[in-house]
Amino acid sequence: MAGVLLVTAAAVVGTVIERSNGSLHVNWPPLYASWFPHLGPGTPAALAVGAAVILHGPSLAARLPWRRLVLAGWVAALAWTWSLALIDGWQTGIARRLTTAYEYLTVIRRFDDAGAAVRDFTHHILNNGPDHWPAHVAGHPPAAVLTFVGLDRIGLGGGGWAGVWCLTVGTSAVAAVLVALRALTDEPTARRAAPFLVLAPSAVWVGTSADGYFAAVAAWSLALLALAATRRSHHPAAAALASGILFGLTCYLSYGLTLIVLIAGAVLWLTRTLRPLPFLAAGAGAVAAAFTLAGFSWWEGYQLLVERYYQGAAAVRPYAYWVWGNLACTVLITGLATVAGVRRTLVAAPTALRGPRPSAEPPRNPTDRLVVLVLSVLLAVLVADLSGMSKAETERIWLPFAAWLPAACALLPTARHRHWLAAQAVLALLLNHLLYTGW
């Protein structure tokens, strides 16, 4: 009920503000979307996939061999996300998403000399700079646009391949979160969470947004860290090194995703070890060194981004609305089942954080460990929200955090799982059929 009231309040108050002075710069607050009821070629598939996960997801998650479950989770997420994207058709839903004036593909030719473009990257961030970058290129470190430059170089150029890349890689976050949950809590907890990770409404934006791809890179960084810290990997040092490389890449894909360090801290606290840290630091340091030697300064880029951010719509978007309107967006991308799971998380938090043990010792109970993990994600969201650097569009920007929050649904009563899954599916279907989303 609280989630419904929050979204309703954000929609009503946001509509009043937007109609009175246009300061929100969104057509359907709190989402960057327009009212556009429609059906599409993906509609039958979306209905079929949603029904299949609702009816069979919990039982399959309970009995499939673990490795098959992880693969099945990714495949199901692919099917769900593809079908939702194709409600808007191939061109509108996938192929053109990353070719608009704000997006990465518009500047591919400016990277014919990639070395020179990276060295000169910061000179084009500000709106009043020479030949300034489009909004999304300017708003991210160069690894984001270099991903699409790389795809173009190997013959996978254009919006279609870019969309397929983001959708395919982005949905792998489901597998990454499952791997991390099993390592940090236990297998039954991960199995209970699996159908909710698949059927999350955030799939509407994972297909097709570059932030879905960023979410998967961040999720695999944390999953590998969890494997290294719990020594579930046969080669924990290699897993920690790979985690560091992906963490470094995450930071050079999006400035704001440095906040996953808060979740990484929770992983290390839950596992009571600092053994992975040297390898983690080496991997992240190698990525940072490579970009620095190539001529890009992360800190200079971030400072210029803050200035560019307030040269645009952020200068007039009211913080007083978005500081809570963003949370309404989070309800929409994670679903009411996740809200119910988060409520149980908050209720259980005092016991999970204190409990009958020495205060410095992490909890051993799988439920308490899940609570701590979800709390770390909520903390990252809170910091991002209060920073004022995410005023609107968080249905896209916060996908890397939204990938983890449905894990809280493992706390819901098993007997009610199908009901909650139905609520998730209905929300996603309504969002994609009633609105034309901007991403």
Brief digest:
It contains 22 helices and two strands. It starts with a helix and ends with a strand.
Structural description of this entry:
There is one protein chain. The chain is an all-alpha fold and 439 residues long. 66% of the residues lie in helices and 1% in strands. A two-stranded antiparallel ribbon has the order 1-2. α3 runs antiparallel to α9 and α9 runs antiparallel to α10. The protein is globular and about 60 Å long. The mean pLDDT is 95.
Primary descriptors:
439 residues; two-stranded antiparallel ribbon; single chain; mainly alpha; 22 helices; 66% helix
Q: Give the overall shape.
A: globular
Radius of gyration: 21 Å
Span between termini = 28 Å
Strand content: under 5%
Helix content: 55-70%
Can you lay out the helices and strands and say which pair or pack?
Layout: H1 2-21, E1 33-35, H2 43-63, H3 66-85, H4 90-95, H5 114-119, H6 135-138, H7 142-153, H8 159-171, H9 173-184, H10 187-198, H11 203-206, H12 210-230, H13 236-253, H14 260-271, H15 277-293, H16 298-309, H17 319-334, H18 336-353, H19 366-386, H20 394-397, H21 399-402, H22 417-434, E2 435-437
Helix pairs in contact: 1-17, 2-3, 2-10, 2-22, 3-9, 3-10, 8-12, 9-10, 9-12, 12-13, 12-14, 13-15, 14-19, 18-19
